[in-house]
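Re: the request from the purification team.
They wanted to know what the chain is likely to look like in 3D before they choose a buffer screen. I agreed to run a prediction and write the result into the notebook, where they can find it.
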Amino acid sequence: MSADDVTQLVLGERQSRDRGRYDQTAECFAEESVVEMSWFQGSGADFVRETRGMAGRGDHAVHRLGPPTVHVLGDRALAELPLIIEWRVDISGVAADLATSCRSQYRAQRGADDVWRIVRITSIYEKDTLTPALPHTRLDIDPLELTAYRPSYRCLAWYMNRNGYRIGPNHLGDDQPEAVARQYQAEMTWLHESRTPAATANVRREQQS
């Protein structure tokens, strides 16, 4: 079924990235794809290349995934994947755990070869924490440094910016609900643009199967 195919697509994209299987990650993306998240905005191919470079610098996170929800209409699908980005980091010689809760929205499209591929990923940030990894240790962080960042991805932005990345203030986050609502509307508009006569016939066939 298409929903199962899309579920495996989005889970496979995250798992292959976490495991360093970048050729597999690249296969998940359509040729004309777009990725928008905190540290990267660009094509799917460039995202895979920059991810490989990030891991080579020792900046490697893993993703704890929840079950995605998937909506399929003809040859288009929307999936929303809840996840937590987990980093083991060093803060001035003290081991710490950085955890960022977010949800990634995936647009997927079925090609002429009947294979589903990702055409867009957009991240929406919820909250994050930065805590010592070991008991009886303390992170020496000036709280004033953190106040410059938005609460939906404050710790992530603070850590990545101090390590040479550029995390701006305008990413989607639950602290700006109007922007998030516009994002959801844009996703549903894209999905329903596929409601052509041929696409409608495909939906009916899938519902009958």
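For the purification team: The chain has seven helices and seven strands.
Please add any questions underneath this entry.
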